[in-house]
Write a structure and sequence with these properties.
The protein is an alpha/beta fold. It folds into 2 domains: about 130 residues, Alpha-Beta Complex (Aspartate Aminotransferase, domain 1); about 230 residues, 3-Layer(aba) Sandwich (Aspartate Aminotransferase, domain 2), CATH 3.40.640.10. It has 14 helices and 14 strands. The chain has a 7-stranded mixed β-sheet with strand order 2-10-9-8-7-3-4, sandwiched between helices. A 3-stranded antiparallel β-sheet has the order 11-14-13, covered by helices on one side. Strands 1-12 form a two-stranded parallel ribbon. Strand 3, helix 6 and strand 4 form a beta-alpha-beta unit. The chain starts with a helix and ends with a helix. The relative contact order is 0.17.
Length: about 375
C-alpha cells in the first residue's frame, strides 16, 4: 500500500490553505494536514451520502457513538459509556469552550509550552489569568516537571490543559506521568482538559496512547479527553471532534450553551468518521509505516546539517527542529527564503525552532530537506 502514499496529489487548485499561501515556488510543510488521499472507504461512504442529494439537518447517530465506544476500547483499552461522548466541530472549538465554560473571570489556568497556539489563544481570548508549564527535554524526551507545576499553581487555579501526544514535541506521555498529573490535579482540585487529537499517530511501535480519563484513581471525574480522527485519516476540512467526559455534571456545564454560538458538525463528517472507524484499519496501519519511515528520514537529514537538531519524535507527523545554533533572528524567514514554508516556532512559544510537517510524499520531502540543508550551509 506504500504506493498510495508515494503518489503525488496536485493540491494547487483545491483551495488549500497550506498550498496556496506561499505560492508555487515554495514547498509548504507547515499546517498540519497531510498530502495523502483519505482511505477509499471514506471516499466511497461520502460519495454514497452525496449521491442522496438531500443535505438536511442531521445528528450523530447512536450507531456512531457505539462505533466510537468500540474504537476507544479496541485502541486504548478504555471502556466508556456512550453517554460520555459529546460531539463538536473541532478540537480547537473544544479547547476554547472548555476555558470559557469551566472557568470564570478571575480564575487561573495552567497550559503547556511550547505547545499548539490555541491553548494560549483560548485563555487569552477568554480573559483568564494563566501560567505556562514547560515541556522540556529530559533524557532526550520532552516532558514536564512536577516541581515546576507545584511552583506555578495558585489558590485560584481551576484548569490544567495537556496535549498528549504533545504538539510540537511529539511525546507520548506514560501512565506514570499521567498519574502524576492526575494526582496533582486531585490535590489542587483542578479539571484536566487533554487534547488527544494525535492519539492514533504513534510512530514508536512499543508505545501506546493512554487517554487521560482512563488511568483510574478518580481522575476520570475531573477529566475531559478531546479526540478526533480528522488528523489520522486526513479529513480536517470536514470537521468533527468528540469530548469524552465521564462526569455528567462537568459535561452539563461544558455544553450548556452549545447550540447558541457553536454549530453542529458538518453532516459529512459523521459519515467519514464512522467509515474510518469501521473500515480504515489497514489504511491506518500503512500510513503509520510510511510516516515512521519519513520520521526516520527527517531525523537523519536534520542531524547531518550543521546548526540544526531535533530530538526523537515518538508521535505525530510534525518534527520540532532546533535552529538556535544558526544564530538567525528568524529561522522561519531563512527557510522561507530558501523555498520551504515551515511553521514558525514563535507560534508555539520558541522563535528559534520551526515545525516541519512530514505528512507528504517522500520525493517532496527530500527536495525540501535539500533546500533546508542549502540554507544552513550558505
Amino acid at each position: 500500500m506504500r504506493h498510495l502514499f508515494d503518489q503525488a496529489i496536485d493540491r494547487a487548485h483545491s483551495d488549500s490553505i497550506r498550498w496556496d499561501k506561499y505560492g508555487s515556488d515554495v514547498i509548504p510543510l507547515w499546517v498540519a494536514d497531510m498530502d495523502f488521499q483519505s482511505p477509499e472507504c471514506v471516499v466511497q461512504a461520502l460519495r454514497r451520502r452525496i449521491d442522496h442529494g438531500v443535505y438536511g439537518y442531521t445528528y450523530a447517530t447512536q450507531s456512531l457513538k457505539e462505533s466510537i465506544q468500540e474504537y476507544v476500547n479496541r485502541r486504548y483499552s478504555w471502556r466508556v459509556e456512550t453517554a460520555w461522548i459529546h460531539f463538536l466541530p473541532s478540537v480547537v472549538t473544544a479547547l476554547h469552550l472548555t476555558v470559557r465554560m469551566l472557568t470564570q473571570v478571575g480564575d487561573h489556568v495552567l497550559i503547556p509550552g511550547p505547545a499548539y497556539h490555541h491553548f494560549q489563544d483560548a485563555v487569552i481570548g477568554a480573559g483568564r489569568d494563566y501560567s505556562i508549564y514547560n515541556i522540556r527535554l529530559q533524557d532526550g524526551r520532552a516532558t514536564f516537571s512536577l516541581s515546576q507545576l507545584e511552583s506555578l499553581v495558585k489558590p485560584n487555579t481551576r484548569l490544567l490543559m495537556l496535549c498528549n501526544p504533545h504538539n510540537p514535541g511529539g511525546t507520548v506521555f506514560t501512565k506514570e506521568e499521567l498519574s502524576t498529573l492526575g494526582q496533582f490535579a486531585k490535590e489542587h482540585q483542578l479539571i484536566i482538559c487533554s487534547d488527544e487529537i494525535h492519539a492514533d499517530l504513534i510512530l514508536d511501535e512499543a508505545l501506546q496512547h493512554i487517554p487521560m480519563g482512563s488511568i483510574g484513581g478518580g481522575i476520570e471525574d475531573r477529566s475531559l479527553s478531546l479526540m478526533s480522527l480528522n488528523k489520522t485519516f486526513n479529513f480536517p476540512g470536514l470537521g468533527l471532534a468528540w469530548v469524552i467526559c465521564p462526569n455528567p455534571q462537568l459535561s452539563q456545564v461544558l455544553l450548556k450553551d452549545l447550540h447558541t454560538l457553536i454549530p453542529n458538525p458538518n453532516l459529512l463528517s459523521y459519515i467519514a468518521t464512522q467509515a474510518a472507524i469501521e473500515h480504515g484499519q489497514a489504511w491506518h496501519q500503512a500510513l503509520i509505516q510510511y510516516l515512521r519511515s519519513n520520521r526516520n528520514y527527517v531525523q537523519q537529514r536534520i542531524h547531518s546539517v550543521s546548526g540544526l537538531s531535533m530530538h526523537h519524535l515518538q508521535a505525530t507527523y510534525l518534527a520540532w527542529i532546533d535552529a538556535s545554533k544558526q544564530s538567525w533572528d528568524n529561522p522561519f524567514e531563512q527557510f522561507l527564503k530558501a523555498g520551504v514554508a515551515l511553521s514558525p516556532g514563535s507560534q508555539f512559544g520558541d522563535s528559534q525552532f520551526v515545525r516541519l510537517n512530514f505528512g507528504t510524499q517522500r520525493m517532496l520531502l527530500e527536495k525540501a530537506l535539500d533546500r533546508i540543508a542549502l540554507a544552513c550551509n550558505q
